[in-house]
Amino acid sequence: MMRKGDHMVDAWHRFIKNVELRRFVVLAIIIVVLWMVRSMMNMILFTFILTYIVVNWVHLVRRWLPKLSPAIITVVTYVLLLLLLYFGVTKYLPVLVRQIVKMVNSVVKFYESNDTTVFYHYINHYISTATIMNQVKHGISLAVSTLTSIGVVTVTFLLSLILSFFYTLELEQMESFSRLFLDSKFSWFFQDVAFFGKKFTNTFGVVLEAQFFIAICNTVITTVCLTVMKMPQIFALALIVFIFSLVPVAGVIISTIPLSLVAYSVGGLRDVVYIIIMVIVIHAIEAYVLNPKFMSSQTDLPIFYTFVVLLVSEHFWGTWGLIVGVPIFTFLLDILGVKSIHHHRKSRRA
């Protein structure tokens, strides 16, 4: 007759041998841990994205220059990245701010000089002084919170930059040290963590790379069209389009709002119609040319699913949800065996 301890040991061994149940438990543990450290999620995502990009860049350079040391490539890459950030903040950021201010002022002046804004003057007539003061207080508090958020994001980004630098610099040591966990007493646990890590890295990497190239193509096409239409502040509009294009499907549509405002202030309804036609054409190019080209139809989701995923992920994760929502959903589809991600190139470690 088996004792209670023997039953527990037997159940434990059966649990370890049941791979599907074991991986489900490990995935649940990972989700709980990530929820507990959710306050550090910005740093985690920044570090992951930076590390993934730089590691793949190092592999790409070594493919062309195999004799070059990975450490030298890493150091040179981060030095160039810091120089780009320095010049971007000191030279191009003031230019961008001035262009955005000019863009906003041009829209405001257009509406102020327009005689058809009767409704605006009617509302303005009935706004009380108390309401105005409340709005001013709200504006000041919003400005303070925005400045604070910018400071926090800047510090988080710098810390992520440092972490990704040391990870990439010691990539071989990191891999050799991490293999020690696979031979420990709880090797099954770390093997499952490695399984999910590899799956997520591959899935996220495919979607991230594809969406990044799609955003570049969308920005180039849009910038050319805006230049032909002789729109003002092209640099600021191009940056806005690029940022919105990082959001799958919805980004192209969302970018229509600021573009239409500027177009209406410059050329009226005619230019707005041109902008809408341009967005429809670009969206068609993205849907039927860029997505099949860059994603090879591996991560292609119906538009309804994409919008639902974006809405849900934005609700739970805010702005980050718009960027990581689709990759996470695709990762879950891959894990559940609903839709696997097939790679047309060798998997690269990040």
TrEMBL record:
The chain crosses the membrane at residues 21-37, 43-61, 68-89, 142-169, 206-229, 235-260, 272-290, 317-338. Pfam families: AI-2E_transport. It is a multi-pass membrane protein. Keywords: Membrane, Transmembrane, Transmembrane helix. It is found in: Membrane. One of its GO terms (biological process) is transmembrane transport. GO terms for cellular component: membrane. Belongs to the autoinducer-2 exporter (AI-2E) (TC 2.A.86) family. PANTHER family: TRANSMEMBRANE PROTEIN, TRANSPORT PROTEIN YDBI-RELATED. This is Membrane protein. It comes from Limosilactobacillus panis DSM 6035.
